[in-house]
Amino acid sequence: MQILTTAAGLQAHTESARQAGRRIGLVPTMGALHAGHLQLVQAARAECDEVIATIFVNPTQFNNAEDFRLYPRVPDADAVLLAPAGCTALFAPSVEEMYPQPTVLRFDFGDLERVMEGAHRPGHFNGVATVVSKLFHLARPHRAYFGQKDWQQVAVVRQLVADLSFDLEIVARPTIREADGLAMSSRNRRLDAPARAAAPLLYQVLTAAAEQVQQGLSPLQVQAQAEAALAAEPLLTPEYFAVADAQTLQPLAAYVPGRAVVLCLAAHLGGVRLIDNVVVER
Amino acid sequence: MQILTTAAGLQAHTESARQAGRRIGLVPTMGALHAGHLQLVQAARAECDEVIATIFVNPTQFNNAEDFRLYPRVPDADAVLLAPAGCTALFAPSVEEMYPQPTVLRFDFGDLERVMEGAHRPGHFNGVATVVSKLFHLARPHRAYFGQKDWQQVAVVRQLVADLSFDLEIVARPTIREADGLAMSSRNRRLDAPARAAAPLLYQVLTAAAEQVQQGLSPLQVQAQAEAALAAEPLLTPEYFAVADAQTLQPLAAYVPGRAVVLCLAAHLGGVRLIDNVVVER
What is the per-residue pLDDT for B67? Predict the structure, then answer.
């Protein structure tokens, strides 16, 4: 596995891979890798000749400086995991390498980012779209792999690709969970023992709500019961619980036959902000 | 010269050119070609193996539906001019081909678009950045050629390329003028005889103002005298005259030693909106 740290180095690498007719898979990450990331690498390995993983804790997508500072960084442990999973090149640039000058342009994704993460983390999806565009231009992937735990991020990146005619395919892979249901997340490392013990509640609330959606309970009732269940846990401060159209991400007043529903939540647990979601096909 | 009308067709063409190690030059135009466009094609021909010209009257960059409707369209005459100038492929897509779905994302370039064209044509540079991003992704150019008559557009496109790390070089070429100084523009075709006779005033005012800048007359005085000279022509309705930093495009209260100045204007002449500019090195 090659390790690249400069934009020019990555561009030279991917230009020659493209010229050789090799198919490139890109797995953009912020490091502190877990099984959720590794399945993305494995999927890319199965479908592409070249698998480029990137590790870059992107400052422009953090609306909270403390969250950025505390985001786990374990580059050596990450590098050890990537090669066995099938990664052929790791791109791990510095902030200065990715942002030699301050960025001027701003993205706005309209209604798609007026809800959930976009509403609670101002500027978050501008930062995501900026760094993803940069990585697409440096890595020239045929396919790029993202985890469905960041459901809204996948929707925004799909919109970016469609609206700017990026010539690549977005592949979204299901959330990987711990045995007790907690969605794998780099931020889980920051949970202390009591917070970790309480954390499975998030997925329990989501699965109970999904059953209620299947049973036809109204979106408002589902949301109210989920919020009550989250509020019952003293360690946990819920930020939002949304019953939304899985594609438009807009909150639902009523279900629309044939359209999937996504249940999304964010909550603070012992100083750590966690998100999770489940999709309900109807 | 190959003529391509589909995005997939252009992508296939440029993918194989890239694989063959051929350098690609892109000349994006809205058609109704004149010598200003053809010098871009010739410059691309001199520097690249493959020269792709695009002709697409992009609806998303028109803030005025009438202006879009009346924009000259002469595809057959354009095609005849391109091959002798060195164009190897012409991409002339339909609106539906470029915008299969309505675009959701919006670009904002901050101060760069709060002045001049951006201020007077709301949404203009969002449309420009969108279509230019699409064309870059379809044509995968090593170099893209733009005319300096659209000085602010060049600045916005350079910002786009820097901020999203597009792997290409922007080449800007000087404005080509008629013998009487009128900047070549596709819109000149729409001038009737009296308007055409009055039109050289625009460049006369710019050159007089440039001399005053060289002589050290203050930006405010230069602007006031230029506005007075434009107002003296009854056929002409000035929209703006700006004395600005050539790089940031922000209006100047005073000159900054070593920084170039750009003088930009827009005016309506017999129902046609024309722009022009000159740069003053100091």
Answer: 92
